[in-house]
Amino acid sequence: MELRQLRYFIAVAEELHFGRAAHRVHIAQPPFSQQIKSLEEEIGAKLLERNSRKVRLTEEGRYFYEQAVSILEQTDLAVSTVGRMAKGESGSVKVGFMEIAMDSLLPEAIRAFRHKHSDVSVLISQLGASAQLERIRSGELDVGFSTVFMHGMEGLASIRLFSKKHVLAVPDDHIFTRKKSLSLEEIAKEKLIMFPRAGQPDLHDSIMQAFSKRGLVPIISQEVSGLSGAAALISSGMGVAFLPDNSHVSRKGITLIPVIEEFPSMDIFMVWNKDSCSNTAKVFMERVADYFSVSKIIFNGTS
């Protein structure tokens, strides 16, 4: 059975006239009639009653007509959807992000993408950098927005979207609030709240190295995941922490002070699996890259 036979049958079932039905599907009547006969023989049931005056559907024909219409509608929908997916106009994109990544223009970029590509579902999960890279590599995520590592990036490609300088966040009643800037020597004497190394090992290590280059060992009092958690501990007087400058996290009870020395910044990258990337994900990433005015992405390799 071929799809064209279903289309022929639907035409005659709706026209109830072989001549008009054949004209409707742009085929001569003799081969049209032969196709309908072959369809009935293949099914093993008479679908049409015909005589010299009229054509009508049998009970089997009425049922088959309903099913044939449904089959063709589903087929047309599948063809259309797959075509749109191939162009990146339909489907879904599974996105991972670190909290700091959303503390930027990224939400606006995603909103703009969804406005122009309403048929694409953007599924978002908040994850640490390590978890994102692992899931991108396994195919559980299409795209990640996170810091990247010096090592362990095999099979992944990335492009830097933006960078944020670190400042020291202290409670509003801290003595440091009287200062315009701080040295690492001063900071090393304070109880420091850090983000877990497991989530951002390279950034964690670079911060520690900034201290060690000056013969300093910071007093790490607590570790916390996420900017909001760090801000809550700082405002409670539990310690001080390095936070990205211009952060939109709640600053109630917090003062941000620049660091004098050259200090590691936080670079946020868009990351994907360079060997396995859907067309929908590619279109999503291209739109995000355009929004951040970064260089054109080269897929199947690192930009």
Automatic annotation (TrEMBL):
Keywords: DNA-binding, Transcription, Transcription regulation. PROSITE patterns: HTH_LYSR. It holds the Pfam family LysR_substrate. GO terms for cellular component: protein-DNA complex. Transmembrane segments: none annotated. It comes from the Bacteria. Gene3D superfamilies: Periplasmic binding protein-like II, Winged helix-like DNA-binding domain superfamily/Winged helix DNA-binding domain. InterPro entries: LysR_HTH_N (IPR000847), LysR_subst-bd (IPR005119), WH-like_DNA-bd_sf (IPR036388), WH_DNA-bd_sf (IPR036390). GO terms for molecular function: DNA binding; DNA-binding transcription factor activity. Residues 1-58 form the HTH lysR-type domain. Belongs to the LysR transcriptional regulatory family. PANTHER family: HCA OPERON TRANSCRIPTIONAL ACTIVATOR HCAR (PTHR30346:SF0), TRANSCRIPTIONAL DUAL REGULATOR HCAR-RELATED (PTHR30346). This is DNA-binding transcriptional regulator, LysR family. It comes from Maridesulfovibrio ferrireducens.
